[in-house]
Write a structure and sequence with these properties.
Length: 149
């Protein structure tokens, strides 16, 4: 490899790419991974987490301990307190909609191609439907980027 050419997409003088592009829309040092652990009883349970600072949500990772075939999970952004003026309880975005879970399919990472703006005061909602006979532990780690001040 001979010298480097500077620029937005660094390459050697031979044309080889020096740094591969990341598959994420944001790679700043302000990336955050925020995790929550829930106990989901038999039936449908909803768990809301308030967003305390404006973020750009890009996805995350989830897992379920001992799910039953037929269990489902949904992940969404909700305006519980009508801060946007469209009514309390409005679902603004549903990133995961009734995703089926099973003992062999109980975890995944979901990364959207772009990061959606979520203003402070909105809620991240996890809804779990447990069709089994025991509580299920469910964990979710959100990947977001906080707005620079």
């Amino acid at each position: 490899m001979s010298g480097f050419i500077s620029g937005g997409n660094p390459r050697t003088t031979d044309g080889a790419q020096v740094v591969a592009q990341m598959p994420y829309a944001y790679t700043e040092e302000n990336a955050r991974f925020v995790g929550h652990l829930y106990t989901c009883p038999v039936g449908t349970s909803t768990h809301d987490e308030v967003v305390t600072t404006t973020v750009r949500l890009q996805g995350g990772h989830y897992w379920a301990a001992t799910p039953t075939i037929g269990d489902t999970v949904s992940l969404s952004v909700v305006d519980k307190d009508n801060i946007l003026g469209n009514g309390a309880g409005v679902v603004l975005a549903e990133y995961v909609k009734t995703l089926p879970l099973a003992p062999w399919n109980h975890q995944a990472e979901i990364i959207a191609p772009t990061a959606g703006l979520v203003v402070a005061g909105l809620y991240l909602r996890m809804t779990y439907t447990n069709v089994g006979s025991n509580d299920v532990s469910f964990g979710v780690t959100y990947r977001w980027f906080e707005q620079p001040v």
